[in-house]
Amino acid sequence: MTVPTHLTYTAEHEWLLAEEGGTARVGITQHAADALGDVVFAELPEPGVVLTAGAPCGELESTKAVSEIYAPADGEVVEVNQAVIDDPGVLNQDPYGEGWLFVLRVTGPLDLLDAAAYTDQIGA
Amino acid sequence: MRRTPLHETHRALGASFTGFAGWEMPVRYGSETAEHRAVRAEAGLFDLSHMGEIEVTGPDAGRTLDRALVGRPSAITPGRARYSMICAADGGIIDDLVVYRLGDHRFLVVANAGNTPEVAAALTERAAPYDAVVRDASEEWALLAVQGPASASIVGPLTDVDAAALKYYSIASGTLAGTDVLLARTGYTGEDGFEIYCAPEAAPALWAKISDAGRAHGLVPAGLSCRDTLRLEAGMPLYGHELSRDVTPFEANLGRVVAFDKPEGFVGDAALAARKETGPERVLVGLVAAGRRSPRAGYPVLDPGTGAEVGVVTSGAPSPTLRHPVAMAYVPPRLAAPGTAVRVSLRGTPEDATVVALPFYTRSR
Q1: Searching chain B, which residue's CA lies closest to the CA of residue A92?
Q2: Is A82 on the interface with B (CB under 8 A)?
């Protein structure tokens, strides 16, 4: 399993892509999507909600299990991926692309893993 | 962890594996939802080689099983099968079983993987007074299952057994794709289907031949994940979830499998007669959740009036067929009538649910 090198990661299997203007796009990793199996329900934070790094901010539910989404950084949610809410299966098909979850205006430090460290963690 | 004779086959198919009762089993090959739908619409091919096969043979084999199990295997016609249970003296369920009668003096008892050693030990102990031999033959059998409406069309042309004429809960010996098999019309999915017992070394070739023959009928490899949602929709209990040493068949609404009128009695009869008389303190029901979040095993069921914890969810998942969450749970009898409103604590948040009759899904015939 390839872990993209242009992203940074949390130990809880979220990825984060820092964008211009102080925002960051957030999703879950392929490893997390594969472990969950077919995601059938995604509960994502609403735009405007202020998140605290490491705190739960949503849920992903598959036929097999339910998993919390953790905020990868402090910040305010500015955009949510409605396509994932409408069809959570996109999380399994393209977790690093079309399956992104939300965009955060980051207000705190980014203390995340690089691809090599995350790869070590999942033993890939 | 133990591996089935089909492990390399699963690996080559790209399966994800999971630990189950000490076995490394395929949980899914791609999308478990697609596998689930294939079994409902066409067919799925399962590896169930982890299941335990215990032979009971000898002139007293039937008497032994009548004494050891809650049912009456001595009344099974050779070539037929019956669902049964083995209970402890206190009435608690040690395992649920399928009992095949292969001949006048020969039975095959199929047990859950994790319970097989305990079932074999209990049968051996209970057989002691009788002229019967109990032998755990699990190592000698691989088990494949073809499940789904296309099963007979797939299996029929491959075997010298008249598969179309093989009745539900029947078993016949013959060949399938050139391999010696026991072919049973049984399953755990709520669909028509076959379970195929063969020698472990023959399993990979048999899997390949069934896969090839089934491709045109929509047959796909199917893992344990969809097996669980299929049996849940069909309202079938799973040991370790709905069934355990802490419940009797009466809590599980399976009192019909208990035969009290056996001349020599059976292990657990006094406790089970008492439970039948008093009635269970909690009973197994179906639940449909109002929201999109699914009740899961272990979640508390709450009294809708007081909010007090009165029961527990034993299995739950978003139903791929019904497209809403379904669950089974133990609740007090006063809350067991279909239509009763209850609440389930979903990770601390009480959510509305309604008691419904089981099963959630019945195939059209």
Answers
A1: B31
A2: no
CATH 3.30.70.1400 fits B52-135, yes or no: yes
ipTM: 0.85
Q: In this complex, do B293 and A37 lie within 8 Å of one another by their Cβ atoms?
A: no
Instruction: Specify the pTM.
Output: 0.95
Q: Which long-range contacts (CB under 8 A, 24 or more apart) does B5-14 make?
A: B5/B49, B5/B142, B5/B200, B5/B201, B5/B203, B5/B204, B6/B47, B6/B49, B6/B142, B6/B144, B6/B203, B6/B204, B6/B207, B8/B204, B9/B47, B9/B204, B9/B207, B9/B208, B10/B47, B10/B221, B13/B221
Q: Which fold has domain B7-49+141-233?
A: Gyrase A; domain 2 (3.30.1360)
Q: How far is A95 from chain B (nearest CA, A)?
A: 15
**Shortest distance, CA B348 to any CA of chain A (angstroms):** 14
- What is the block-wise mean pLDDT of chain B (365 residues), using blocks of 10 residues? 98 96 97 97 98 98 98 98 98 98 98 98 98 98 98 98 97 98 98 98 98 98 98 98 98 97 96 97 96 96 96 97 96 98 95 98 88
